Amino acid sequence: MAFTLTQLENLVESLLAQESLITPARIRELIRELRAVSGVSDDDAEALARSFEARHGVTMRLGGVLTDADFVQWLTAAKSSIDFYYWNRYRKLLAHNHLSQRVIDTIHLDTDRTLEFLQNPQLEGTWKRRGMVMGHVQSGKTANYLGLIAKAADAGYKIIVVIAGIHDNLRNQTQRRIDEGFVGRDSARDRSRNEDTRIGVGLFDNTRRPCPFTSSLRDFNKAAARAVGVPLQNLREPAIFVIKKNPSTLRSLIEWIRELNTSASGSTLVDSPLLLIDDEADNASINVAREGSVSTINGQIRQLLQLFSRSCYVGYTATPFANIFIDPESKTEMLAEDLFPRHFIVSLDPPSNYVGATRVFLDEPDKFIRYIEDSDELLPVTHKQTHIVDELPDSLVTAIRAFIIARALRLLRGHRTAHCSMLVNVSRFTLVQSQVKAEVQRVLAPIQESARLHAGLSEKRALADPEMAALRTVFLAEFADRGFEWIDVQKTLIDASAPIKVMEVNNKSPDALNYQGFAGTGLSVIAVGGYSLSRGLTLDGLMVSYYLRNSQMYDTLMQMARWFGYRDDYDDLCRVWMPAGAVSWYVHIAESIELLREELRQMAAAGATPAEFGLKVRAHPDSLRITAMNKMGSSERMVFSIGLSGKLIETSTVHAVRSFRDTNVAAARTLVASLESGGFLERLVGGPGSSRVYSRVPADVIATFIRAYRNHPSSLLTDPGPVASYIDQRSNAELASWDVALVGVQVASEDPDVSLGVPINRQFRNSGESSNPRALALSDNRRVATVGAERFGLTAEEIAIAESQFRKSMERDGRAVKAVPDSAYRKVRTRPLMLLHVLRVKGSEEVSEPEPVIAYSLSFPKTSIEEQHVEYVVTSQWRREHAISEAVDELTPEDVGL
């Protein structure tokens, strides 16, 4: 009997599951043997072989773990007495969904580690555990906590609460995932007696099932819960709640538990062990109320935990700079915060096929990123709710055409039932989103009509139509080397464009993304939205993103990046359109988070605790910006203790006022005179006017310049008082001797500048978007020094060591080797480095280009002695100047716990 392609795929998958070592050769051997009795074509067999090779070539590393020192691990000893019923059927589902065995094994190990740090649910008495799992945006956190839920239920946790997003669409999506991965039945249809509602794990084994108190159509409701009529502690199987992160929902759940379940036992506490999963734990769960009080949702989560004598709280987040770590109070007060993950932090490393910030913005930006340069008039980044949209920027029209062509290419690759999505995130206002949806539909309709009328014609006749010619132009610019000719794409355009729907996704829109309802055919959608598309909501098969938002909040930016995720066999078709300024911020954030995760790995190897890591994050220079922007309700003055060991600080914003700039030129002239007369000049780099490198410069020369320099308040990290004091304190030890580079370009486009007493070819910078009549931003991502500048002062041997160590770390992580970042050179530095910049700033109304602008960078080596943090004082005025509004028009005050 001949096999269909699907039957062949399932048979090969089942045979590979029995293999101890899966190789490309073994995959092709199995397909070749089975094809003898199949009706599968050569092309389909080859596509199937490539799919299996990609699937089973994926690897996944274990991440780092921090835990409290005195916790006694229990899982290994208890495993022999645990029936892993729920986990085993979930594991089968993962294999059925085509995850590689190595990824499944790593999820197994990761969830075992996390379960180990929860308390043993069989342990009597009163106990509480608080932890956190750090993942990456769109990297499979839900798959991980589904595994944790399954194992926790097997071990004996009887009450499981998952607090999902603050919108119904995200809560409903999470409920559907839990129905499939844990409950085993479709909760939306489960009350039907006349149909089989089994889905997901229920198709493998349905002999036991949890008791769901919510459905994919309904959040928690007290009346419906009362109808169950059984106290929680009397349920034979685990109770599962999937609730929205909303004050009224949390209040209803708390009241119902108090009314029914505590009174039934005669106790004020529920004795059944609770596992509470807080998805997106950095969003709305953090206490951001004024000092001495508690914000609503944070307080309600604490109240819920306090109803149980035995409980574990696990927060899942993809943004490790969350406030939960960087609250600017003392260590004692940090640990007193009930949701701080004092007991454990588990870091999840994504599989090797994950497309994340590092790959998109650091490794392969030319492949993924396209710049938006034409939106200012039609769709300005900053606009009001009353903004009128009556036309789309050409770049957005191009992005829509790219999406249609990319979908055609996926059809040509055989992805006929795959979901295909495009994201348009250009405004936080629902009224503007509605207009954008209408305009996108207005652009899409004639393309669909043109495909219907002309796609089947000869190439010459078809290209006489302007829409077809425009599509071909985009194909040649973006996808001409993707293995197909234009005529192949043209013939597929009817099937590619006709099914595409334009949907508005926000809490006021009737549209609802329901990929599950299109499992057999695939849903093709252009999703227009704002905040709903920025937190947790998964866009299946996302290929093209058009992103135009104004935020400098690290967590907000990363969560808006819905284009991260898994793009097997179509990652080469993915594109992201965004402004250059936003790209600069993402580059900076990607670098910062990579360094932070490396810090966690190192601290885990050293046996550090979550509290020590929390303090480390809090002392990171980047934490100052995030905390200040999120703690607006606190005191007028806030003191931040920042660690400068192994860090780079720069004067990224300088005074635009002429007198202050003149002062800085004079201070730099005095510094250079001291360097020249003191005999510190080591070498010239390049020809006349290029960089001048000085070595073994005494610390007091550096500190004198920093105190003389008129620092702009926006460059808080270079505040001369605390920085000069930090240098003074270590001037007899690690910071006694400095390297200094007066940085000049090698190829001059103008006569050398001599304002500092020596000739120097000035560097060019563009005025940043945040510049104003008093402040001149030297870049949009707060960076001044160019890539590679921190090599100044290092020997050839030190440079080689730094680059070798970086490449080894990239290979260890399974990532492609990219340009070596300056942080790699900083790791081998033994002396601190000052970079003195003489700039020509373009695009500023306040500063004419002939006038030199002085800026500087300080690169500090890692300290080998106990670090003394630098204390910065932040005033409410500074916070107001730096807080860029990301208020969400889609939310009510109650939604965010006000």
Strand order of the largest sheet: 1-8-2-7-6-3-5-4
Q: What's the number of domains?
A: 4
> Tell me, what's the shape?
globular
CATH level 3 topology of the largest domain:
Rossmann fold
Q: Structural class per helix/strand content?
A: alpha/beta
> Architecture of the largest domain, CATH level 2?
3-Layer(aba) Sandwich
The CATH homologous superfamily of the largest domain is named P-loop containing nucleotide triphosphate hydrolases
Q: For the terminal residues, how far apart are their CA atoms?
A: 65 Å
CATH secondary-structure class of the largest domain = Alpha Beta
Specify the biggest β-sheet: 8 strands, mixed
Q: What fraction of residues sit in β-strands?
A: 15-25%
Oligomer: single chain
Q: How many separate helices?
A: 30
Characterise the protein shown here.
40% of the residues lie in helices and 15% in strands. With 898 residues, the protein is α/β, with parallel strands linked by helices. It folds into four domains: 5-56, no CATH class; 83-347, P-loop containing nucleotide triphosphate hydrolases (Rossmann fold); 373-547, no CATH class; 644-794 and 829-868, no CATH class. The strands form six sheets. Strands 1-8-2-7-6-3-5-4 form an eight-stranded mixed β-sheet, sandwiched between helices. Helix 5 (85-96) packs antiparallel against helix 7, helix 16 (394-412) crosses helix 20 and helix 26 runs antiparallel to helix 27 (720-729). The longest helix is centred in the middle third of the chain and has 26 residues, at 580-605. The radius of gyration is 29 Å and the shape is globular.
